[in-house]
Amino acid sequence: MPAGAGVATSGYPSLDEVRGSPGYPSRERMAKGAVAVIECVQEIPCNPCEAACPRGAVKVGQPITNLPALDGEKCIGCGLCLARCPGLAIFLLDMTYSDTEAALSFPHEYLPLPEPGATVTAVDRAGQPVCRAKVLKVANPARNDRTPVITIAIPKEFAESVRGIARKSGGGDVGR
Known about the structure:
29% strand, globular, two-stranded antiparallel sheet, mainly beta, seven-stranded antiparallel β-sheet
């Protein structure tokens, strides 16, 4: 993404924007295990993430247009906030998944859903291919209100850039 780009010009946030938001966990917190990564960078009236967190790790407060702030020490990585975000802007990142791979969970509202064990194309915020990924889990419990959450394993070096998987169309993958 070119310098100066971001959600206002491209429609998706730049890595600098998300790193600068109060919902982005510290590298130290990421190194401890699964943690929510909130990539909400626009001040919009929205707060389902705050209500979803049983530990009070996500705060929006008043006014409702505040950016959600993550208290990384309170976040236990349960992922309850992922499917509650109507903007699909919350991810769960586990940098301790293995020595070489991170586990990334995200809401996915496209069909068909991938099967656990499948190899898929992981994409960035713009929907551009980044790397291959293995689907670890596809969860769609009733509490998600029909928003499946997919967990993939990706090389750690792509943990901050991968944010979804390519959709299947006909015989191959297409962008997110």
